[in-house]
């Protein structure tokens, strides 16, 4: 990467853009609603079950002017979801400013492993055991979404729930390859612990991105 481009990326004025698309939010609190997704490359959290491992290497994705990303996104929807990868590896302030200047709502999906930057209307924290969230992200999260891969993840979910704010909405979501095995256990768990809600990757059932 050329030095001048790297400097722009380091400042968040360019971002390694993996993909962008207009679709229906499939997960969590806003499931079923239209949203424009911006997927930013780069992640070192390293979940073995990640379904977008091609996002991990930021060098595979072209540095793109942040203002151009925002300009394009605002054409499609008034709700923009920034995801990854791990978007907080990059300075999100320029992107959210550009989006806010265009009058749209800003959502982020993050593991919380990096400093919280950007101006967000909704923060979905999806914590991972391999690289735990920072306390500031726990406290700022509007939604906690814990992926359930095995029985031990219920304990991890409770540990994470103890660190978020009292108004944070709590979701358990089965890892897709384990859904048939884990959903019955999750249903039983949520019925016994009704502070939790179930989340499913409904976009996969609908065969949409």
From TrEMBL:
Entry EC no(s): 4.3.99.3
Pfam entry (one): Radical_SAM
Pathway(s) annotated for this protein in UniProt: Purine metabolism; 7-cyano-7-deazaguanine biosynthesis
InterPro entries for the chain: 7-CO-7-deazaguanine_synth-like (IPR024924), Aldolase_TIM (IPR013785), rSAM (IPR007197), rSAM_sf (IPR058240)
Every Radical SAM core domain range: 30-209
Keyword annotations from UniProtKB, A to Z: 4Fe-4S, Iron, Iron-sulfur, Lyase, Magnesium, Metal-binding, Queuosine biosynthesis, S-adenosyl-L-methionine
Binding site for S-adenosyl-L-methionine: 49-51, 85, 126-128
Record's cofactor remark: Binds 1 [4Fe-4S] cluster. The cluster is coordinated with 3 cysteines and an exchangeable S-adenosyl-L-methionine. Binds 1 S-adenosyl-L-methionine per subunit.
Residues where [4Fe-4S] cluster binds: 43, 47, 50
Catalytic activity: 6-carboxy-5,6,7,8-tetrahydropterin + H(+) = 7-carboxy-7-carbaguanine + NH4(+)
Cofactor requirement: [4Fe-4S] cluster; Mg(2+); S-adenosyl-L-methionine
Binding residue positions for substrate: 24-26, 39, 83, 209
Gene3D superfamilies per UniProt: Aldolase class I
Role of this protein: Catalyzes the complex heterocyclic radical-mediated conversion of 6-carboxy-5,6,7,8-tetrahydropterin (CPH4) to 7-carboxy-7-deazaguanine (CDG), a step common to the biosynthetic pathways of all 7-deazapurine-containing compounds.
Binding partners and assembly: Homodimer.
Family: Belongs to the radical SAM superfamily. 7-carboxy-7-deazaguanine synthase family.
PANTHER family to which the protein is assigned, alphabetical: 7-CARBOXY-7-DEAZAGUANINE SYNTHASE
Protein name per the record: 7-carboxy-7-deazaguanine synthase
Organism this protein belongs to: Pseudofulvibacter geojedonensis
